[in-house]
Amino acid sequence: MRAPAVVVTGMAWTTPLGDGLDEVWRLLCAGATGVVPVGSPHRLRTSLAGEVPFPPYASTAPEERQIALAVRTLAAALADAGVAADDPAVTLVLGTSFGGRLDSTGEPGGADEPDRHWTREVARRLGHPGTPLCVTTACSAGADSLLVAQALLRGGRARICVAGGADVLSEAKRLGHSALGTMSRTGLRAFDTGHDGTILGEGAGFLVLEPEETALARGARILARLDGVGSANDATGLTTLDPTGDSVVAAVRRCPGGTSDVAVVCAHGTGTPVNDEVEAAGLNRLFATAGSDPIVFGTKGALGHSLGATGAIEAIATVLALRHRAAPPLAGLDTPMPGFTLRLADGTAQELRGRAGLSLTLGFGGFNTCVRFSYGQGGPEERGAPAGPARSAVVGHGELLSEDPAARSADRPALYADPVAWLVAGAVEAVLDESGCGPDVLAARNDVAVIVLTGTQPLPTSSALAAQVAAQGRVSPRRFAGANPGILAGLTCIRWGLRGPSLVLAAADDGAVDAALTVAESWLGSGQARYVIAVRHQTHSGGHTVRCAVLRAAPESDFMSRCDPRVLLTAPIASPATTA
């Protein structure tokens, strides 16, 4: 079975330079910047940030700004596509990093914890009848939302998806990144010899996606084709990139079409020396023999690094670059770093050679994602489309209950990952050891994917950090890194060196399990993964339950296929008496 082509029929963004697609694009191409001093009551490494004017930062709570920003941008994307906001055929896939949760001191799951259900509030204010999916893979969340949407559309689980990300500035984020030492005191200069750090920003970006046949049938305007999304995990550290660039290379090579006929690359380009060097090394390797000569550009020097929204904002920028046949200059680029063999966008007129564009995001927790768009006729689907979802066979499964996840991580302080991440890792370890599939899975570790489905409550470390911010006005850098929700999958990848695709979805209902398994089957069907470790974490009155199923592609006749992974992940929770 061949998968249907997926196209972009609407887009919208809200950025520090404004919210009009053409207006912001014109300003980017003119070298404008939205990075300005933003006040704070705390001592920060820098006051510079990319601030969205409305809702106002100084007088509005982060969670309210997150909701308002997402609603405004989603409504604009739907209007651009000519789709009604209350259309039940639309599925919302929203990406973010932390949202406002690090600034909220309410009890996890309590009535005063508004961030725990921000996606549902977004749907309510938008007038949408469905329950959104929430992708929480740090800086790759906006791009990974496109991955989820494409899998749902190609798997026949959705008719139209609106996917992207929203992320706002907060004092906790600014304190956390100050403590990590990742921010520049003077400005973000990606791929420049003077690069010394990043600058935080905020914003939102959403794309309306649908099968090409559906779009043509309703007379929709097609802006670009989403050729595919590839991803890989560094399996290196909570905030550390794989210095070899292998994961960047793997993410691009797993993307349908890869480097063929690429005109532009929208790089992650954070301006930190390590990130720039790793990304440059990966791009040099990828295009050394690709036959393409792309121009590399980025938006963070002008807009700041909007974390969970950046992948969506830069996906929109990639589509606009293809349509306008131009690449905006890299803000702050003066002297390109030596050894970068690709053409960098420097504001001079440079010819775009090719009809496709790549957008790269590299996130904390090891998440590397490549999104490929094309403009015009003759995309990868027309030359031979990727296969559709594969039927999955369960080769191992298990369940782990715990009243107190912190007890499982008390003797493992080195990584400082959230206790729930250690609970997930413990469940995976038990299944690999007890099911007999461990040796085969670990022998294929470069092609083993991890997908974790969790609830909407903040992680324990997030709540602890919120209290620390409120009481002391500071953040522990190690705890800040370990509070990233993406660590629920990232820690398992680090523990066993798993370098396949990885994903974390936050949703409370059983219906989200279908989405997670659809993504897993799309990875197996496309060959992006040989095995998928699917995990579901739930909180309840007895504590925490983690269910784990190890999947591989299987023919219809395979007897193991009789074990339904959805049943395994949605079964009634066992009695607390069996707590591990």
Number of helices: 19
Radius of gyration: 22 Å
What is the helix content?
A: 25-40%
Strand content: 15-25%
Cα distance spanning the termini:
43 Å
Let me know the largest β-sheet. 16 strands, mixed
Q: Give start-end ranges of low-pLDDT stretches.
A: 107-115, 379-385, 576-580
Shape: globular
Class per helix and strand makeup: alpha/beta
DSSP strand count:
18
What is the typical, i.e. mean, pLDDT?
90
With strands numbered from the N-terminus, the spatial order across the biggest sheet is 11-10-9-12-13-8-1-7-6-4-5-16-15-17-18-14
Question: What this model shows, in words?
Answer:
The chain is 33% helix and 21% strand. Strand 4 (90-95), helix 3 and strand 5 form a beta-alpha-beta unit. The chain is built from 19 helices and 18 strands. Residues 107-115, 379-385 and 576-580 have low confidence and may be disordered. The protein has 580 residues and is of the alpha/beta class. It has helices spanning 21-29, 62-81, 118-126, 141-154, 171-180, 212-217, 246-253, 273-287, 300-303, 310-324, 380-384, 406-409, 419-434, 438-443, 460-472, 477-482, 487-496, 511-526, 565-570; strands at residues 6-14, 35-37, 48-50, 90-95, 133-135, 160-167, 203-211, 224-233, 262-266, 295-297, 343-344, 356-363, 367-374, 392-402, 448-454, 502-506, 531-540, 543-553.
